[in-house]
Amino acid sequence: MLQKISPLQKCQEELGSLKAELEEKKSSLKLYQDTHQEYARVKEECLKTDAQKKKLEAKVKKLEEAAVKQTQDFKQLRNEKKILEKEFKKT
């Protein structure tokens, strides 16, 4: 009778060990899934941020070009003003 209990006890111990291993693997899998979800979320956020960055860079470029044009226009108007003032003084 003791010999029959021994194999049963071994099987129960092995079953307990396998259950513990299964729980450990489930825990590892859950951690991996959570990490993967976080990675996917961060990656999506990075893509959105990159798209926003490109839009903002395009706006900055347009504003810089507009500023250069305004500076050139201002210089031209100042030169024209000087010319007109000289002509006015001559008359």
Helix content: over 70%
Number of strands: 0
Decide which structural class fits the backbone. Answer: mainly alpha
| Proportion of beta-strand residues | under 5%
Query: How far apart, in Å, are the first and last alpha carbons?
Result: 134 Å
Q: Please write the string of helix (H) and strand (E) elements.
A: H
Mean pLDDT value: 94
Q: State the shape.
A: rod-shaped
How can the largest sheet be summarized? Answer: none
The number of helical runs is: 1
Work out the radius of gyration: 39 Å
Given as residue ranges, the uncertain stretches (5+ residues, pLDDT < 50) are none
What key phrases describe this protein's structure?
1 helix; 91 residues; 98% helix; rod-shaped; mainly alpha
